[in-house]
Amino acid sequence: MSALLSARDVHKAFGGNTAVDGMSLDLHPDHITALIGPNGAGKTTFFNTVTGYERADSGSIVFDDKELIGLQPWRISRLGVVRTFQTPVGFPSMTVWENMQVAGASHSVLRNMLGRRGKNEEGELSARTDEILSDLGLEGILDTPVDELPAGERKLMEISRQLMSRPRLLLLDEPAAGVNPSSIGLLSNLIRSIHQSGVALMIIDHNLSFVLDVADYIHVLAEGRLIAEGTPDEIASSTLVRQVYMGVDE
Amino acid sequence: MKRIFLTLAAASLLGGLAISCGGDDDSGTINFGFLNGLSGDYSSWAAPSLDGAQAAIDVINANGGVLGRDVRLVIEDNQSTAEGAVSGYNRIRDEIHALGGVESDGAVALLSRLPEDQIPTICPACGTTELDEKGGNYIYRITASDTANGIIAAQLARDLGFSKVALLVQQTEGAESPANVFKQVWEEKVGGEVVADVRFAPGNPSYQAEVQQAFANGPEAVYIGAGFEAGLSIISEYINRGHEATLLVSPDMIVPPISEAAAQLPTGRLLAAVATDDFGSPAYTAFDAAHNQYVGSPPPTGFYETNQYDQYIVLALAMTAAESTDGEKVNEQIPNVMNSPGTKVYNYPDGLAALERGEEIDYDGASSDLELNQKGNIVSPKMSVRQIVGGEYEERNTIAMDPALNPVS
Amino acid sequence: MSNWSFWLNVLTLMGVYSALTMVLNVEAGWGGMWDLGIAGLFAVGSYTYTILTITGFEVSIAPGWPSWTGILAAMAMTGIVAFLVGLPSLRARREYFLIITFAFAEVFRQLAINWGDITNGTVGFNTLTKPLSFGLTGDDYRNLLLGLTWVIVILVFVLTRRLSRSSYGRALRAMRDNEPAAVSLGIRVSRLRLQTFVFAGVLMGGIAPFYLAWLDIVQPHVFESQLTFTVWTALVLGGIGSRFGPVMGAVALILFTELIERIDVPLSLRQLLVAVHPLAIGLLLVLLLRFRPQGIISENKTFGARSRAEISILGDFTASFSDFKTALGRLLRR
Ligand SMILES: Nc1ncnc2c1ncn2[C@@H]1O[C@H](COP(=O)(O)OP(=O)(O)OP(=O)(O)O)[C@@H](O)[C@H]1O
Ligand SMILES: [Mg+2]
Questions:
Q1: CB burial readout A223-245, b (16+ within 10 A) else e
Q2: Under CATH, which number does the domain B8-143+304-363 receive?
Q3: Can you tell me the ipTM of this complex?
Q4: Which of A14, A47, A84, A171 to mutate to test the pocket of ligand 1 (most atoms within 8 A of CB)?
Q5: Residue of chain B with shortest Cα separation from C217
Q6: Is the pTM of this model over 0.80?
Q7: What integer pLDDT is reported at residue C330 of this predicted model?
Q8: Which domain holds residue A49?
Q9: Do domains B8-143+304-363 and B147-276+383-405 have the same CATH topology?
Q10: B residues 361..400 contacting C (CB < 8 A)
């Protein structure tokens, strides 16, 4: 079983504050992988180094035989590594439908001004948008401006928008945060179906029951270092994890 | 796509079908435009200018108007800019039979427009060198040009016996045009030497380096083309460094702060020349009377008020001579009524009488003798040379510009 | 109207400013690029056109090209210059971009003043070659010019409309709304900005000759920042980000300016009136932004629910107008 993404000894410090301190992990596409850890552990920073938003100080991050460190974020996205944001704002002045359309299209002036190609592409995008949104039961909010959506729907919209760009690896930063508890089940189903459609997944979240439910494999991060990994069962029963992460003293 | 083309076609039709309806009826008043910088940079000239213009209109109407019709002044602001002049002109164009009052920016912007529209125009306050060769057809200048200011400076330097001069000039149209003429005349017509030509952008806190450069190669005279702010700091720099070359300064610098700053210089060290009215002429007496009657006070000087007055007298005489308000015919008559040969006249009623007798006339105005060359420019404007005595500008003498020095013949 | 010269003048000017404002809207409204260098790029286009087409002036380059090649060259040159200006300045943040473009505009003006061999310095050029005159002169040409400017307005409208509804337009607005999120979707922000800046430059270069046909002179002082601020005022007035708003804004602004100009006041109050003019426009803006912060037509109304439907250009106009009508109604009811 080969890794789709492998990180080796990744370091990232902000001034004197080391956020990621020698992380190494392998991500297998047939697992839904999760990354958990207390606030400030360095989870988001790790996502940032993978997606190029922050440049790692040292180490290597290889995706599908390509080194990602040093590449521009837009290029990493076009390689198929796509992330969501911890606080999703989307494109607030645009409707849900327009938000969806931003992804996956070509952005060349000339190609858009001239040529039939643009037209075909538009049609294809439209169809895909309808498909994804109806899968999620979101057809009703197509014409709603994003800044009028409740937080939960915005989260779903954000995930579906990123799907429009046909990622091979999707990095979700706290997808359950702000989602109504009654909708968490829907979110889990969505994530599973995304995974089944062939997209590798890595999830950061603080909602432990959600993570334990949806993930196949879990890495635990504290103060920039990985302190444990394993199946949900193993993690749930690890005393170290309970101490560090859940603050339970035994 | 089809719809787009239809829309385009409709739009072009809209443009193409629009009919021009500027018309000239033979009754009612005759309208003279007064397109002037009522606001903006030239606005301090506006009130005295308008008084001069109104005085002329009153004189014309008091003598029966033109062709038996009353004359009316159509006043329009050009905001002292080219854009303002174009807009302002378009606002009044359909009403007017002739135009006056314009300054350089407006005249240049309307240069191709006026002949097209056949609107005879007199420019009472244009300095621009662009009219040196482009005037003389629908547009006539009755003021001394920047070219004349440049020539007169060269003439002064020549008459003082200098051979080496330098230039120190601010980069604005008004300052550079006469400076360039000065340089050209000095080298080509006088045969003198230019030892330095320094140009600077206005608005600097000091001009040390520029002054040093200009005076470095031992010029006998330095031509300074600058507004009074830059001029002031140049003069104090000149005094501090103890230079001794004669200063020939542009008319913009004939202001009290400059004369006060230069009070300690020997008399005749700093000279400036500026166009002057023909105070001794009977035409000036007629203007003075008209101004007194219309405005209720004697005219000020130096605000183009005589030029503003003369232009409408000229237009009225030309229209009378043409026996028509038709632009083309009036345009032909404008140089005729100003230039010799012809019976010399100094006011409107005398001009009318002479024309009625079937004579050719030669109107000499309050501003000058109004002899124009082929390009509609004054041949030999009269200039007043000023020097500083006791911290104030004083007239040293008046001289007529030597036409032989004019690079435009 | 009886005074056709007056309307011809006003309508032509409205056309030129409408086109310019629509171009600014692409950059600033959709792209979020606050360009204060419009006068600079406009100057590049103007000088390029004039130098290549002028006759009768002694400058070192004056090939006397026909006007249509002059227009194309002006577009190309303005595009190239926009590229060169954009390359360093578009990396800067929004506030700095604003300052840098403003500074560049001033640099171009100074260049026009100092590069006398080519630009004829502070004197500049007059009696210009008229673009696309087809041998017409005088009033005939001015009527044609009115048609031409409004054809340009329609062309620019169609172009920007097409652009706004394309993935390119959406990418622009996405980049403006949330740059990190746009990047996460593979949008190459730096290139998109540069493309847009160049695109806007090319259009400005194409519009410039028609403004010159109206003004008939080219001088450095024509390209002072006043021009930039007029276009910006029209954009804010009409509605930043809406498709038809820029046209409404430009038309309203020019009309307002003309109305103020037409007020008959004694000479002594004239200076005051003109001084009050910018103040009045400022007040107009404050009032508008108080009661209708998005301008006459809002971006939401432009896109919003209608974005999906295949609507015609005519539909676009009527939609914009009905939006304008409701806005007006709301204002009047207060
Ligand atoms: N751009 C930055 N500049 C400086 N410090 C940063 C930056 N980004 C993150 N940090 C610091 O790095 C550390 C790790 O932050 P990070 O956001 O990666 O944590 P996290 O695990 O995602 O936490 P949370 O669960 O709260 O989202 C924190 O101490 C944070 O303050
Ligand atoms: Mg985080």
A1: ebbbbbbeebeebbebeebeebb
A2: 3.40.50.2300
A3: 0.90
A4: A14
A5: B109
A6: yes
A7: 60
A8: 1-80+167-250
A9: yes
A10: none
